[in-house]
Write a structure and sequence with these properties.
alpha+beta, Nucleotidyltransferase, domain 5, five-stranded mixed β-sheet, 17 helices, Transposase, Transposase_DDE, Transposase_HTH, Transpos_ISL3
Length: about 400
Amino acid sequence: MKGRWPMSTFDYIANSLNVKGNVIKKCIHSEQQIEFIMELNRAVVQCPNCHAKTDRIKDYRWQRIAIESILHQQAFVRLHKRRYVCPCCGRTFFETVPFLQRYQRKSKDLQMQIMVSCFQKRSFTDIAADFHTSTTTVIRYFDRLHFPHPQHLPQVLAMDEFRGNAHGQKYQVSITDVEHNELIDILPRRDADWIIRYFLRYPKAERRRVRYVVMDMSALFRSVYKTMFPNATLIADRFHVQRLVLWAMERVRKDIQNTFPKTSPYLKHNKRILQKRGTTLSGEELVKLRCILSQSDELRRAYILKEAFYKVLRQKTELAAKRELNKWLAMVMGYNLDAFKGILRSFKDWEAAIIQAIIQPYSNGFTEGCNNLIKTVKRVAFGMRDFNRFRNRILYVNWQKRNSANALPSS
């Protein structure tokens, strides 16, 4: 049906499309969509061929242009598009449409709205459905964006791997600033030589500015650290250090569980009590703990080692941390549990980085949070094989969490 919309509404629509004057002639409004009939004002224009001025009209063509939705309905402009003819060279050309790029059928604002929607944790298919377009169109618009590589390195830099299955590689690497909680880049492969080549983009003076490098206890990342960051102090991730101790205790529990079938279900169902800090247990949990530890002297010793390690983690100075860590390692040697022997080797190899993990406030906690965000983006997208698209999507979704989606990051 033909809508009797007030002229102020037509003016508002015209202004939103960056055109002036009485250009919207009428509105056709149905249950499914809204269509505005538009004709731009005649103007003196310049010939793109010989640059002569003219306002001579050859003919008109109708063009249908999708614009941003109005009142939650799909909206279009049906433009009576003017074609000019140059009196000097005879060249014909269409008038310029302020809200439309050349060869496009969607307005600039609608294209921008589609791109900004890609910053959300949603699949391209869902976004396409919202805008009544195809998935390939949404992907094509998004691929116009490129999230810039950082120009500077953070003073506290963290590296971690995640399983992305992109670019023909199983694992990718996230680089974060854990001082300011910012995801700064995604690398396409977990390969020491490739990561080193990436950091070689930065001058040596820039790499010397990095004060701390945080990582899990990875020999690969440590080789990158030694090569690239001569002035930085290495920090092992506190969570991974603590997890090694918990895993060692868990191995003892499983061995005892397999040795005594009758008590196996009780040990299995109450394993969370063993993993919790002793100071956080309720009265009922303490009763269960005493019952569990009475099953095996080995399990009791493993639990004592786990609890003693929390004292190491409470130290505030390098001297105190080193003293308590050495005391704890001496306990491990004295208790002579097979499950803890691997810890002796690892802790001696990473001693300096572990001490820094104890006394410094930095960890890979934020980086692990970014990896969880990456898993969510990957899941809602049903996987993403193109690495550049994968990288851009992750960085833009993360950027949108930290900023308003009304503007794009500068590239």
